Amino acid sequence: MRNTEIIRELNDKLRTSCTGGRIVMTEGVLAQGTETARQVLTLVKNFTAFSEDNDPYGEHDFGAITHNNIKYFWKIDYYDLDYLMHSPDASNPEVTNRVLTLFLAEEY
Q1: For residue 97, what pLDDT band results from cuts at 50, 70 and 90?
Q2: pLDDT at residue 2 greater than cutoff 90
Q3: Helix axes 3-17, 34-45, angle to 10 degrees
Q4: pLDDT, tens digit, for every residue of 48-87?
Q5: Which uninterrupted H or E stretch holds 25?
Q6: How far, in Å, are 14, 33, 90, 107 from residue 27 at the CA level?
Q7: For residue 62, what are the β-bridge partners?
Q8: For 64, what's the count of Cα atoms within 13 Å in the CB-facing half-sphere?
Q9: Residue 88 and residue 79: Cα distance in Å, rounded?
Q10: Dihedral of the CA atoms 8, 13, 97, 21 (nearest 10)?
Q11: What are φ and ψ of residue 53, in 5° steps?
């Protein structure tokens, strides 16, 4: 399996099952209320609209969704084990901590 395929598989696991990393929501998302945050996270879990425009490297690490007329983005980043720097190898879960951040588009 190529590195991109491994990264995509690990990212999809985090996105769809909320396992294999951390999920972080910004203050803007949390300010929408617990129920809305839960609904938006469900939309992220079910997101399949990957294209060359939003996923040029095929890693499934970014998406945009709209809920109740509010646009949200989500992004997966790859950190080292101490969360201090980028991971030395995003395809290796032994040296990578994944973080999915969910935020309002206006917070970008």
Answers
A1: very high
A2: no
A3: 150
A4: 999 999 999 999 999 999 999 999 999 999 999 999 999 9
A5: strand 22-25
A6: 21, 10, 27, 9
A7: 75
A8: 11
A9: 8
A10: 150
A11: -70, -45
Instruction: Choose among 43, 50, 45, 99: nearest CA to 70.
Output: 43
Decide if 72 contacts 102 (C-beta within 8 A). Answer: yes
At 32, list the tokens.
Answer: 């929408």
Query: In this predicted structure, what is the pLDDT of residue 1?
Result: 66
Token readout for 73 is 């983005």
Tens digit of each residue's pLDDT (9 = 90 or more) over 23-59: 999 999 999 999 999 999 999 999 999 999 999 999 9
pTM over 0.85: yes
Closest CA to 9 of 64, 91, 107, 65: 91
Which of 30, 32, 29, 9 has the alpha carbon at shortest distance from 19? Answer: 9
Show the tokens assigned to 85.
């720097």
